[in-house]
Amino acid sequence: MLPELLQGTDAGGFLIIQDSASYSGRHLLKSFINAALNREEAVHVLGFEVSEEELKDGLKGSPVQRLHFHNAYSDPLGWTDQPAFTVHQFRLEELTRLVKQTSHPKPATLVIDSLSWILRHLSPPAVCKTLQQLRKGGSVRAIIGLLHADMHQRGTVGSVCHLATSVITVAPGMKGDGAVAKITKRSKSGKVVLDEVIFSIKDDLTVVVQSKPSQLGPKQIDPEEQETDPTANLTFNLRLSNTEREAKEKLALPFVFSKEKKIALLHSSPGSGRILYEPDANDDYDQEDPDDDLDV
Amino acid sequence: MFTELNSILNTTPDSFTQGEFVLLSDRQSDASFLIHHFLSLYLRARCRVWFVGLVQSFNHYSAISQRLGVSLTQAKEKGQLVFLEGLKESLSVLIPEDTDPGSQAMDFLRDPAVGLKSLYEFVRSSATSSAVGKHEEAEEKWGPPVLLVDDLSVLLSLGVSVGAVLDFSHYCRATVCSQLQGNMVMLSRCDGGEEEDDGDDEGSERLLKGLTHQCSLTLHVQGLPTGYCRDIHGQVEVCWRRRQGDGHHTQKKLFQYKVHDKGASFFAPGTSSAVL
Protein backbone atom coordinates (compact mmCIF):
# COMPACT_ATOMS: atom_id res chain seq x y z
CA MET A 1 0.00 0.00 0.00
CA LEU A 2 3.02 2.26 0.45
CA PRO A 3 3.60 2.69 -3.31
CA GLU A 4 -0.05 3.63 -3.76
CA LEU A 5 0.27 6.32 -1.12
CA LEU A 6 3.41 7.61 -2.79
CA GLN A 7 1.61 7.71 -6.10
CA GLY A 8 -0.55 10.44 -4.75
CA THR A 9 -2.89 10.96 -1.90
CA ASP A 10 -6.39 11.86 -2.91
CA ALA A 11 -7.54 15.43 -2.91
CA GLY A 12 -8.24 16.54 0.61
CA GLY A 13 -5.98 13.82 1.90
CA PHE A 14 -4.00 14.20 5.07
CA LEU A 15 -1.09 11.90 5.62
CA ILE A 16 0.91 11.64 8.81
CA ILE A 17 4.30 10.01 9.04
CA GLN A 18 4.86 9.00 12.63
CA ASP A 19 8.37 8.32 13.81
CA SER A 20 10.34 7.99 17.01
CA ALA A 21 13.81 8.76 18.22
CA SER A 22 15.07 5.38 17.06
CA TYR A 23 14.17 5.90 13.41
CA SER A 24 13.67 9.20 11.66
CA GLY A 25 10.75 9.48 9.29
CA ARG A 26 12.26 12.40 7.46
CA HIS A 27 13.75 10.26 4.71
CA LEU A 28 10.33 8.89 3.94
CA LEU A 29 8.96 12.42 4.04
CA LYS A 30 11.57 13.44 1.48
CA SER A 31 10.50 10.54 -0.69
CA PHE A 32 6.95 11.84 -0.57
CA ILE A 33 8.13 15.35 -1.50
CA ASN A 34 10.17 13.88 -4.33
CA ALA A 35 7.22 11.86 -5.60
CA ALA A 36 4.94 14.90 -5.53
CA LEU A 37 7.52 17.00 -7.36
CA ASN A 38 7.88 14.35 -10.01
CA ARG A 39 4.12 14.44 -10.51
CA GLU A 40 4.56 18.12 -11.36
CA GLU A 41 2.73 19.33 -8.32
CA ALA A 42 3.67 22.41 -6.40
CA VAL A 43 4.95 21.52 -2.97
CA HIS A 44 5.02 23.96 -0.10
CA VAL A 45 7.23 22.92 2.76
CA LEU A 46 6.69 24.47 6.14
CA GLY A 47 10.07 23.70 7.62
CA PHE A 48 10.53 23.95 11.35
CA GLU A 49 13.18 21.34 11.84
CA VAL A 50 15.49 21.48 8.86
CA SER A 51 16.97 24.38 6.98
CA GLU A 52 16.25 24.94 3.32
CA GLU A 53 19.78 23.97 2.33
CA GLU A 54 19.61 20.74 4.22
CA LEU A 55 16.26 19.81 2.73
CA LYS A 56 17.28 20.64 -0.82
CA ASP A 57 20.54 18.85 -0.28
CA GLY A 58 18.57 15.68 0.25
CA LEU A 59 16.43 16.32 -2.81
CA LYS A 60 19.18 16.42 -5.37
CA GLY A 61 17.92 15.36 -8.72
CA SER A 62 14.34 16.33 -8.09
CA PRO A 63 12.76 19.22 -9.93
CA VAL A 64 13.06 21.67 -7.02
CA GLN A 65 11.77 24.70 -8.89
CA ARG A 66 8.24 23.79 -7.85
CA LEU A 67 9.34 23.40 -4.25
CA HIS A 68 8.53 26.39 -2.10
CA PHE A 69 10.24 26.42 1.25
CA HIS A 70 8.77 28.52 4.00
CA ASN A 71 11.47 29.14 6.51
CA ALA A 72 10.15 28.52 9.97
CA TYR A 73 13.49 27.00 10.92
CA SER A 74 15.71 29.97 11.61
CA ASP A 75 13.33 31.84 13.85
CA PRO A 76 10.14 30.01 14.76
CA LEU A 77 9.45 31.99 17.91
CA GLY A 78 10.31 35.49 16.81
CA TRP A 79 13.37 35.84 19.00
CA THR A 80 15.21 37.83 16.39
CA ASP A 81 13.92 40.89 14.64
CA GLN A 82 12.80 39.53 11.31
CA PRO A 83 11.10 36.21 11.68
CA ALA A 84 10.10 34.69 8.36
CA PHE A 85 7.39 32.51 9.81
CA THR A 86 6.66 31.94 13.45
CA VAL A 87 4.80 29.08 14.97
CA HIS A 88 2.04 31.43 16.08
CA GLN A 89 1.30 32.16 12.45
CA PHE A 90 0.11 28.59 12.05
CA ARG A 91 -3.44 29.65 11.24
CA LEU A 92 -5.67 29.09 8.28
CA GLU A 93 -5.43 32.64 6.91
CA GLU A 94 -1.66 32.80 7.11
CA LEU A 95 -1.16 29.40 5.55
CA THR A 96 -3.62 30.10 2.76
CA ARG A 97 -1.80 33.34 2.06
CA LEU A 98 1.53 31.51 1.93
CA VAL A 99 0.27 28.88 -0.45
CA LYS A 100 -1.52 31.40 -2.66
CA GLN A 101 1.64 33.53 -2.98
CA THR A 102 2.86 31.47 -5.84
CA SER A 103 0.76 31.24 -8.92
CA HIS A 104 0.30 27.66 -9.86
CA PRO A 105 -2.67 26.21 -11.67
CA LYS A 106 -3.02 23.13 -9.51
CA PRO A 107 -3.69 23.20 -5.78
CA ALA A 108 -0.51 22.48 -3.94
CA THR A 109 0.66 19.88 -1.46
CA LEU A 110 1.55 21.24 1.94
CA VAL A 111 4.33 19.46 3.80
CA ILE A 112 4.73 20.20 7.51
CA ASP A 113 8.07 19.32 9.06
CA SER A 114 7.19 18.75 11.74
CA LEU A 115 3.84 18.78 13.50
CA SER A 116 5.68 18.11 16.74
CA TRP A 117 7.20 21.54 16.71
CA ILE A 118 3.80 23.13 16.34
CA LEU A 119 2.20 20.89 18.93
CA ARG A 120 4.86 21.88 21.42
CA HIS A 121 3.88 25.53 21.20
CA LEU A 122 0.21 25.58 20.33
CA SER A 123 -2.60 23.77 22.02
CA PRO A 124 -3.58 20.49 20.34
CA PRO A 125 -7.20 21.60 19.76
CA ALA A 126 -6.00 24.71 17.93
CA VAL A 127 -3.64 22.67 15.76
CA CYS A 128 -6.35 20.13 14.96
CA LYS A 129 -8.76 22.90 14.06
CA THR A 130 -6.30 24.56 11.69
CA LEU A 131 -5.46 21.25 10.05
CA GLN A 132 -9.10 20.39 9.57
CA GLN A 133 -9.84 23.82 8.11
CA LEU A 134 -6.92 23.46 5.75
CA ARG A 135 -8.18 20.13 4.53
CA LYS A 136 -11.65 21.43 3.88
CA GLY A 137 -10.51 24.85 2.67
CA GLY A 138 -9.53 23.75 -0.80
CA SER A 139 -6.41 25.85 -1.08
CA VAL A 140 -4.21 22.83 -0.58
CA ARG A 141 -4.67 19.53 -2.32
CA ALA A 142 -3.10 17.38 0.32
CA ILE A 143 -1.25 17.73 3.59
CA ILE A 144 1.70 15.60 4.61
CA GLY A 145 2.96 15.99 8.13
CA LEU A 146 5.80 14.50 10.14
CA LEU A 147 5.04 13.71 13.76
CA HIS A 148 7.49 12.58 16.41
CA ALA A 149 5.13 10.41 18.36
CA ASP A 150 7.42 9.88 21.33
CA MET A 151 7.51 13.59 22.08
CA HIS A 152 3.86 13.91 22.97
CA GLN A 153 1.28 12.43 25.18
CA ARG A 154 -0.59 9.54 23.70
CA GLY A 155 -3.84 11.48 23.64
CA THR A 156 -2.36 14.29 21.58
CA VAL A 157 -0.90 11.90 19.05
CA GLY A 158 -4.20 10.07 18.90
CA SER A 159 -6.30 13.12 18.29
CA VAL A 160 -4.06 14.42 15.51
CA CYS A 161 -3.94 11.00 13.89
CA HIS A 162 -7.72 10.79 13.95
CA LEU A 163 -7.81 13.69 11.52
CA ALA A 164 -5.52 11.97 9.10
CA THR A 165 -6.71 9.89 6.18
CA SER A 166 -3.52 7.85 6.31
CA VAL A 167 -1.01 7.25 9.04
CA ILE A 168 2.35 5.67 8.40
CA THR A 169 4.27 4.64 11.50
CA VAL A 170 7.91 3.93 10.81
CA ALA A 171 10.22 1.91 13.02
CA PRO A 172 13.72 0.54 12.54
CA GLY A 173 13.92 -2.77 10.74
CA MET A 174 15.55 -5.90 12.03
CA LYS A 175 18.45 -5.94 9.64
CA GLY A 176 20.24 -3.74 7.15
CA ASP A 177 18.73 -0.48 6.12
CA GLY A 178 15.19 -1.78 5.90
CA ALA A 179 12.57 -0.17 8.05
CA VAL A 180 9.11 -1.28 9.05
CA ALA A 181 6.12 0.83 8.10
CA LYS A 182 2.70 0.27 9.59
CA ILE A 183 0.07 1.87 7.46
CA THR A 184 -3.46 2.74 8.44
CA LYS A 185 -5.59 4.08 5.65
CA ARG A 186 -9.12 5.35 6.01
CA SER A 187 -11.07 5.56 2.81
CA LYS A 188 -13.97 7.92 2.33
CA SER A 189 -16.46 5.15 2.78
CA GLY A 190 -15.16 4.68 6.26
CA LYS A 191 -13.34 1.48 5.58
CA VAL A 192 -10.05 1.15 7.40
CA VAL A 193 -7.24 -0.79 5.78
CA LEU A 194 -4.19 -1.86 7.73
CA ASP A 195 -0.93 -2.95 6.21
CA GLU A 196 2.60 -3.55 7.28
CA VAL A 197 5.62 -3.56 4.99
CA ILE A 198 9.38 -3.54 5.17
CA PHE A 199 10.82 -0.84 2.96
CA SER A 200 14.08 0.85 2.19
CA ILE A 201 14.82 4.17 0.57
CA LYS A 202 17.34 4.35 -2.22
CA ASP A 203 19.68 7.25 -2.86
CA ASP A 204 17.38 8.78 -5.43
CA LEU A 205 14.60 8.75 -2.79
CA THR A 206 12.57 6.02 -4.41
CA VAL A 207 10.97 3.67 -1.94
CA VAL A 208 11.53 -0.03 -2.40
CA VAL A 209 9.11 -2.35 -0.67
CA GLN A 210 11.10 -5.40 0.28
CA SER A 211 8.56 -7.71 1.79
CA LYS A 212 5.50 -7.97 3.89
CA PRO A 213 6.59 -9.10 7.31
CA SER A 214 3.30 -10.68 8.26
CA GLN A 215 -0.29 -10.88 7.28
CA LEU A 216 -2.54 -9.10 9.67
CA GLY A 217 -4.28 -11.86 11.47
CA PRO A 218 -5.59 -12.24 14.97
CA LYS A 219 -2.10 -12.97 16.13
CA GLN A 220 0.89 -11.27 14.64
CA ILE A 221 4.12 -13.11 14.31
CA ASP A 222 7.29 -11.32 14.98
CA PRO A 223 8.93 -10.55 11.62
CA GLU A 224 12.22 -11.91 12.82
CA GLU A 225 10.69 -15.14 13.98
CA GLN A 226 8.96 -15.74 10.74
CA GLU A 227 11.94 -15.05 8.59
CA THR A 228 14.56 -17.19 10.22
CA ASP A 229 14.52 -20.90 9.45
CA PRO A 230 16.16 -22.76 12.33
CA THR A 231 17.25 -25.63 10.09
CA ALA A 232 19.06 -23.38 7.65
CA ASN A 233 22.83 -23.03 7.82
CA LEU A 234 23.38 -25.95 10.16
CA THR A 235 26.85 -27.37 10.50
CA PHE A 236 25.47 -30.90 10.40
CA ASN A 237 23.09 -32.80 8.17
CA LEU A 238 19.52 -33.38 9.24
CA ARG A 239 18.43 -35.52 6.32
CA LEU A 240 19.54 -39.05 5.26
CA SER A 241 20.08 -40.45 1.87
CA ASN A 242 18.83 -44.03 1.16
CA THR A 243 22.23 -45.64 1.55
CA GLU A 244 22.77 -43.78 4.76
CA ARG A 245 19.41 -44.91 6.03
CA GLU A 246 20.24 -48.56 5.23
CA ALA A 247 23.54 -48.30 6.98
CA LYS A 248 21.83 -46.77 9.95
CA GLU A 249 19.22 -49.50 10.14
CA LYS A 250 21.86 -52.21 9.93
CA LEU A 251 23.71 -50.91 12.88
CA ALA A 252 22.96 -52.58 16.19
CA LEU A 253 22.76 -50.30 19.12
CA PRO A 254 25.05 -51.19 22.03
CA PHE A 255 22.50 -51.84 24.77
CA VAL A 256 19.80 -53.49 22.77
CA PHE A 257 19.77 -57.27 23.23
CA SER A 258 19.34 -59.10 20.00
CA LYS A 259 19.14 -62.89 19.83
CA GLU A 260 22.68 -63.23 18.60
CA LYS A 261 23.97 -61.10 21.36
CA LYS A 262 22.18 -63.12 24.02
CA ILE A 263 23.50 -66.39 22.70
CA ALA A 264 26.97 -65.03 22.42
CA LEU A 265 26.86 -63.98 26.04
CA LEU A 266 25.21 -67.08 27.53
CA HIS A 267 27.01 -69.82 25.62
CA SER A 268 30.59 -69.14 26.14
CA SER A 269 32.99 -70.52 23.68
CA PRO A 270 34.87 -73.78 24.50
CA GLY A 271 38.04 -73.48 26.49
CA SER A 272 36.90 -70.61 28.58
CA GLY A 273 36.19 -70.70 32.30
CA ARG A 274 33.06 -72.14 33.81
CA ILE A 275 31.36 -71.70 37.16
CA LEU A 276 30.80 -74.86 39.18
CA TYR A 277 28.47 -74.77 42.13
CA GLU A 278 28.46 -77.23 44.91
CA PRO A 279 25.74 -76.66 47.52
CA ASP A 280 27.09 -76.27 51.01
CA ALA A 281 25.23 -77.26 54.18
CA ASN A 282 25.81 -73.85 55.68
CA ASP A 283 24.26 -72.28 52.70
CA ASP A 284 21.01 -74.00 53.37
CA TYR A 285 19.47 -71.10 55.02
CA ASP A 286 15.88 -71.15 56.15
CA GLN A 287 14.09 -67.95 55.64
CA GLU A 288 11.28 -68.77 58.00
CA ASP A 289 13.47 -69.56 60.97
CA PRO A 290 16.57 -67.44 60.86
CA ASP A 291 17.75 -68.69 64.25
CA ASP A 292 17.66 -72.31 63.17
CA ASP A 293 21.43 -72.71 63.40
CA LEU A 294 21.59 -71.46 66.96
CA ASP A 295 22.43 -74.23 69.44
CA VAL A 296 20.01 -73.30 72.15
CA MET B 1 41.35 14.43 22.60
CA PHE B 2 41.10 10.68 22.24
CA THR B 3 42.60 9.51 18.98
CA GLU B 4 40.69 6.23 19.10
CA LEU B 5 37.39 8.07 19.26
CA ASN B 6 38.51 10.30 16.41
CA SER B 7 39.07 7.30 14.19
CA ILE B 8 35.68 5.90 15.14
CA LEU B 9 33.97 9.16 14.29
CA ASN B 10 36.21 9.69 11.28
CA THR B 11 37.37 13.11 12.42
CA THR B 12 40.74 14.70 12.93
CA PRO B 13 41.56 18.22 14.07
CA ASP B 14 42.35 18.99 10.45
CA SER B 15 39.20 17.64 8.89
CA PHE B 16 35.78 17.25 10.39
CA THR B 17 32.27 17.59 9.14
CA GLN B 18 30.87 21.04 9.55
CA GLY B 19 27.34 21.85 10.60
CA GLU B 20 27.04 18.85 12.88
CA PHE B 21 25.04 18.68 16.07
CA VAL B 22 26.56 16.06 18.33
CA LEU B 23 24.46 14.92 21.24
CA LEU B 24 26.19 13.32 24.17
CA SER B 25 23.98 11.54 26.62
CA ASP B 26 24.38 9.20 29.50
CA ARG B 27 22.17 7.00 31.55
CA GLN B 28 23.24 6.09 35.06
CA SER B 29 26.78 6.73 33.93
CA ASP B 30 29.04 9.65 33.21
CA ALA B 31 29.66 10.99 29.73
CA SER B 32 31.56 14.09 30.75
CA PHE B 33 34.85 12.60 29.53
CA LEU B 34 33.43 13.05 26.04
CA ILE B 35 32.92 16.76 26.66
CA HIS B 36 36.62 17.07 27.41
CA HIS B 37 37.39 15.16 24.25
CA PHE B 38 35.39 17.51 22.07
CA LEU B 39 36.68 20.58 23.86
CA SER B 40 40.29 19.65 23.22
CA LEU B 41 39.51 18.43 19.70
CA TYR B 42 37.98 21.70 18.59
CA LEU B 43 40.61 23.80 20.32
CA ARG B 44 43.27 21.87 18.45
CA ALA B 45 41.31 22.25 15.25
CA ARG B 46 41.69 26.00 15.73
CA CYS B 47 37.97 26.61 15.97
CA ARG B 48 36.54 29.40 18.03
CA VAL B 49 34.83 27.67 20.92
CA TRP B 50 31.97 28.89 23.06
CA PHE B 51 31.70 26.83 26.15
CA VAL B 52 28.65 27.03 28.35
CA GLY B 53 29.77 25.28 31.50
CA LEU B 54 26.88 24.92 33.87
CA VAL B 55 28.07 22.12 36.12
CA GLN B 56 31.76 22.71 36.78
CA SER B 57 34.10 25.60 37.30
CA PHE B 58 36.59 26.82 34.74
CA ASN B 59 39.45 25.44 36.80
CA HIS B 60 37.98 21.97 36.59
CA TYR B 61 37.87 21.97 32.80
CA SER B 62 41.23 23.68 32.67
CA ALA B 63 42.91 21.06 34.83
CA ILE B 64 41.56 18.19 32.73
CA SER B 65 42.39 19.88 29.44
CA GLN B 66 45.91 20.39 30.71
CA ARG B 67 46.21 16.64 31.02
CA LEU B 68 44.93 16.24 27.48
CA GLY B 69 47.54 18.68 26.30
CA VAL B 70 45.49 21.81 25.75
CA SER B 71 45.73 24.97 27.77
CA LEU B 72 42.38 26.61 28.30
CA THR B 73 43.86 29.70 29.89
CA GLN B 74 45.98 30.37 26.85
CA ALA B 75 43.08 29.76 24.52
CA LYS B 76 41.01 32.16 26.54
CA GLU B 77 43.66 34.82 26.40
CA LYS B 78 44.04 34.41 22.66
CA GLY B 79 40.32 34.88 22.31
CA GLN B 80 39.84 31.39 20.90
CA LEU B 81 37.75 30.22 23.81
CA VAL B 82 34.78 32.03 25.26
CA PHE B 83 33.85 30.43 28.54
CA LEU B 84 30.55 31.12 30.21
CA GLU B 85 31.02 29.98 33.76
CA GLY B 86 27.50 29.21 34.78
CA LEU B 87 28.28 28.69 38.43
CA LYS B 88 29.82 32.13 38.87
CA GLU B 89 27.32 33.88 36.68
CA SER B 90 24.38 32.41 38.48
CA LEU B 91 25.79 33.60 41.78
CA SER B 92 25.98 37.14 40.49
CA VAL B 93 22.40 36.88 39.31
CA LEU B 94 21.12 35.57 42.61
CA ILE B 95 23.22 37.93 44.76
CA PRO B 96 23.45 41.00 42.56
CA GLU B 97 26.34 43.33 43.11
CA ASP B 98 25.39 46.82 42.15
CA THR B 99 28.70 47.68 40.52
CA ASP B 100 28.71 45.19 37.69
CA PRO B 101 25.48 44.14 36.11
CA GLY B 102 27.29 41.23 34.40
CA SER B 103 26.01 39.49 31.37
CA GLN B 104 22.35 38.84 30.80
CA ALA B 105 22.96 35.23 29.90
CA MET B 106 21.80 33.69 33.14
CA ASP B 107 18.75 35.89 33.57
CA PHE B 108 16.49 32.89 33.26
CA LEU B 109 17.39 32.01 36.84
CA ARG B 110 15.23 34.82 38.16
CA ASP B 111 12.23 33.69 36.23
CA PRO B 112 12.64 30.31 34.54
CA ALA B 113 9.26 30.68 32.88
CA VAL B 114 10.51 33.24 30.37
CA GLY B 115 12.70 30.66 28.71
CA LEU B 116 16.29 30.67 27.58
CA LYS B 117 16.15 33.54 25.15
CA SER B 118 18.75 35.46 27.15
CA LEU B 119 21.19 32.54 27.05
CA TYR B 120 20.65 32.20 23.32
CA GLU B 121 21.22 35.93 22.89
CA PHE B 122 24.60 35.50 24.56
CA VAL B 123 25.53 32.71 22.14
CA ARG B 124 24.23 34.53 19.10
CA SER B 125 25.72 37.91 19.82
CA SER B 126 29.16 36.57 20.63
CA ALA B 127 29.16 34.07 17.77
CA THR B 128 27.94 36.39 15.06
CA SER B 129 30.03 39.34 16.22
CA SER B 130 33.19 37.29 15.88
CA ALA B 131 32.06 35.95 12.54
CA VAL B 132 32.08 39.43 11.04
CA GLY B 133 35.60 39.82 12.35
CA LYS B 134 35.76 41.73 15.58
CA HIS B 135 38.95 39.98 16.54
CA GLU B 136 40.52 40.60 13.22
CA GLU B 137 43.31 42.87 14.33
CA ALA B 138 46.51 41.01 13.57
CA GLU B 139 45.14 37.84 15.08
CA GLU B 140 45.07 34.36 13.77
CA LYS B 141 42.31 33.12 11.55
CA TRP B 142 39.98 30.83 13.44
CA GLY B 143 38.03 27.98 12.00
CA PRO B 144 34.26 27.49 12.17
CA PRO B 145 32.57 28.31 15.48
CA VAL B 146 31.78 25.58 17.94
CA LEU B 147 29.32 25.65 20.79
CA LEU B 148 29.66 23.24 23.69
CA VAL B 149 27.13 22.94 26.48
CA ASP B 150 27.74 20.94 29.65
CA ASP B 151 25.07 20.06 30.43
CA LEU B 152 21.53 20.80 29.34
CA SER B 153 19.68 18.69 31.85
CA VAL B 154 20.89 20.84 34.71
CA LEU B 155 18.66 23.55 33.27
CA LEU B 156 15.69 21.34 34.05
CA SER B 157 16.74 21.28 37.68
CA LEU B 158 16.91 25.06 37.60
CA GLY B 159 13.24 25.19 36.73
CA VAL B 160 13.39 25.59 32.98
CA SER B 161 10.83 23.55 31.09
CA VAL B 162 11.76 20.86 28.59
CA GLY B 163 10.19 22.86 25.78
CA ALA B 164 12.31 25.90 26.60
CA VAL B 165 15.51 23.86 26.54
CA LEU B 166 14.51 22.35 23.19
CA ASP B 167 13.78 25.82 21.84
CA PHE B 168 17.19 26.94 23.01
CA SER B 169 18.95 24.04 21.34
CA HIS B 170 16.91 24.57 18.19
CA TYR B 171 17.92 28.22 17.97
CA CYS B 172 21.54 27.40 18.69
CA ARG B 173 21.44 24.80 15.96
CA ALA B 174 19.85 27.20 13.49
CA THR B 175 22.50 29.81 14.24
CA VAL B 176 25.64 27.79 14.83
CA CYS B 177 25.14 24.77 12.59
CA SER B 178 23.10 26.14 9.72
CA GLN B 179 23.92 29.81 9.54
CA LEU B 180 27.57 29.78 10.55
CA GLN B 181 28.33 26.20 9.44
CA GLY B 182 29.86 25.45 12.80
CA ASN B 183 29.45 22.53 15.14
CA MET B 184 27.58 22.04 18.34
CA VAL B 185 28.07 19.53 21.13
CA MET B 186 25.58 19.20 23.94
CA LEU B 187 25.47 16.88 26.89
CA SER B 188 22.26 15.71 28.43
CA ARG B 189 21.91 13.19 31.16
CA CYS B 190 19.18 10.85 32.08
CA ASP B 191 19.01 9.19 35.44
CA GLY B 192 15.95 7.07 35.04
CA GLY B 193 15.79 3.52 33.83
CA GLU B 194 15.35 2.60 30.22
CA GLU B 195 11.70 1.67 30.26
CA GLU B 196 10.22 4.47 32.20
CA ASP B 197 7.28 6.27 30.74
CA ASP B 198 5.36 9.01 32.47
CA GLY B 199 7.42 8.49 35.60
CA ASP B 200 9.05 11.11 37.79
CA ASP B 201 12.00 11.52 35.50
CA GLU B 202 9.84 12.32 32.53
CA GLY B 203 11.57 15.65 31.95
CA SER B 204 15.06 14.45 31.16
CA GLU B 205 13.66 11.55 29.15
CA ARG B 206 11.61 13.87 26.98
CA LEU B 207 14.51 16.25 26.63
CA LEU B 208 16.74 13.45 25.41
CA LYS B 209 14.17 12.32 22.85
CA GLY B 210 13.63 15.85 21.61
CA LEU B 211 17.35 16.43 21.25
CA THR B 212 17.77 13.11 19.48
CA HIS B 213 15.29 14.28 16.87
CA GLN B 214 17.37 17.41 16.31
CA CYS B 215 20.90 16.07 16.28
CA SER B 216 22.98 14.45 13.58
CA LEU B 217 25.16 12.22 15.74
CA THR B 218 24.56 10.75 19.17
CA LEU B 219 27.01 9.25 21.59
CA HIS B 220 25.09 7.51 24.31
CA VAL B 221 27.07 6.34 27.31
CA GLN B 222 25.74 3.60 29.55
CA GLY B 223 27.12 1.45 32.28
CA LEU B 224 27.69 -2.18 31.51
CA PRO B 225 24.44 -4.15 31.64
CA THR B 226 26.25 -6.78 33.70
CA GLY B 227 27.33 -4.33 36.34
CA TYR B 228 30.50 -2.69 37.53
CA CYS B 229 33.80 -3.79 36.09
CA ARG B 230 37.27 -2.53 36.89
CA ASP B 231 38.64 -2.81 33.38
CA ILE B 232 35.64 -1.73 31.35
CA HIS B 233 33.96 1.44 32.50
CA GLY B 234 30.93 1.19 30.29
CA GLN B 235 29.69 1.17 26.75
CA VAL B 236 29.04 3.93 24.31
CA GLU B 237 26.59 3.67 21.46
CA VAL B 238 27.45 5.78 18.45
CA CYS B 239 24.59 6.52 16.10
CA TRP B 240 24.77 8.55 12.92
CA ARG B 241 21.35 9.92 12.13
CA ARG B 242 21.98 11.75 8.89
CA ARG B 243 22.14 10.06 5.56
CA GLN B 244 25.73 9.14 5.00
CA GLY B 245 27.45 8.68 1.69
CA ASP B 246 27.04 4.93 1.75
CA GLY B 247 23.27 5.20 1.83
CA HIS B 248 22.52 4.18 5.39
CA HIS B 249 19.99 6.26 7.21
CA THR B 250 20.97 5.43 10.70
CA GLN B 251 24.08 3.59 11.49
CA LYS B 252 24.73 2.26 14.95
CA LYS B 253 27.90 1.00 16.52
CA LEU B 254 28.54 -0.14 20.04
CA PHE B 255 31.86 0.16 21.80
CA GLN B 256 33.10 -0.45 25.28
CA TYR B 257 35.43 2.04 26.81
CA LYS B 258 37.83 2.60 29.60
CA VAL B 259 38.84 6.03 30.78
CA HIS B 260 42.50 6.39 31.62
CA ASP B 261 44.35 9.10 33.37
CA LYS B 262 45.17 10.77 30.07
CA GLY B 263 42.67 9.72 27.51
CA ALA B 264 40.38 6.78 26.98
CA SER B 265 40.42 3.60 24.98
CA PHE B 266 37.54 2.26 22.95
CA PHE B 267 37.17 -1.29 21.80
CA ALA B 268 34.57 -3.61 20.36
CA PRO B 269 32.43 -5.36 23.00
CA GLY B 270 34.22 -8.30 24.53
CA THR B 271 37.67 -7.39 23.32
CA SER B 272 38.98 -5.71 26.43
CA SER B 273 42.62 -6.47 27.10
CA ALA B 274 41.56 -7.73 30.51
CA VAL B 275 39.39 -10.40 28.90
CA LEU B 276 41.55 -11.53 26.05
From TrEMBL, chain A:
<comment type="similarity">
    <text>Belongs to the ELP5 family.</text>
</comment>
<keyword id="KW-0539">Nucleus</keyword>
<dbReference type="GO" id="GO:0033588">
    <property type="term" value="C:elongator holoenzyme complex"/>
</dbReference>
<dbReference type="GO" id="GO:0002098">
    <property type="term" value="P:tRNA wobble uridine modification"/>
</dbReference>
<protein>
    <recommendedName>
        <fullName>Elongator complex protein 5</fullName>
    </recommendedName>
</protein>
<feature type="region of interest" description="Disordered">
    <location>
        <begin position="270"/>
        <end position="296"/>
    </location>
</feature>
<dbReference type="Pfam" id="PF10483">
    <property type="entry name" value="Elong_Iki1"/>
</dbReference>
<comment type="pathway">
    <text>tRNA modification; 5-methoxycarbonylmethyl-2-thiouridine-tRNA biosynthesis.</text>
</comment>
<dbReference type="GO" id="GO:0000049">
    <property type="term" value="F:tRNA binding"/>
</dbReference>
<dbReference type="GO" id="GO:0005634">
    <property type="term" value="C:nucleus"/>
</dbReference>
<dbReference type="GO" id="GO:0005829">
    <property type="term" value="C:cytosol"/>
</dbReference>
<dbReference type="InterPro" id="IPR027417">
    <property type="entry name" value="P-loop_NTPase"/>
</dbReference>
<feature type="compositionally biased region" description="Acidic residues">
    <location>
        <begin position="280"/>
        <end position="296"/>
    </location>
</feature>
<keyword id="KW-0819">tRNA processing</keyword>
<dbReference type="InterPro" id="IPR019519">
    <property type="entry name" value="Elp5"/>
</dbReference>
<keyword id="KW-0963">Cytoplasm</keyword>
Automatic annotation (TrEMBL), chain B:
<comment type="similarity">
    <text>Belongs to the ELP6 family.</text>
</comment>
<dbReference type="Pfam" id="PF09807">
    <property type="entry name" value="ELP6"/>
</dbReference>
<keyword id="KW-0539">Nucleus</keyword>
<comment type="pathway">
    <text>tRNA modification; 5-methoxycarbonylmethyl-2-thiouridine-tRNA biosynthesis.</text>
</comment>
<keyword id="KW-0963">Cytoplasm</keyword>
<protein>
    <recommendedName>
        <fullName>Elongator complex protein 6</fullName>
    </recommendedName>
</protein>
<dbReference type="GO" id="GO:0005737">
    <property type="term" value="C:cytoplasm"/>
</dbReference>
<dbReference type="InterPro" id="IPR018627">
    <property type="entry name" value="ELP6"/>
</dbReference>
<keyword id="KW-0819">tRNA processing</keyword>
<dbReference type="GO" id="GO:0033588">
    <property type="term" value="C:elongator holoenzyme complex"/>
</dbReference>
<dbReference type="GO" id="GO:0005634">
    <property type="term" value="C:nucleus"/>
</dbReference>
<dbReference type="InterPro" id="IPR027417">
    <property type="entry name" value="P-loop_NTPase"/>
</dbReference>
<dbReference type="GO" id="GO:0002098">
    <property type="term" value="P:tRNA wobble uridine modification"/>
</dbReference>
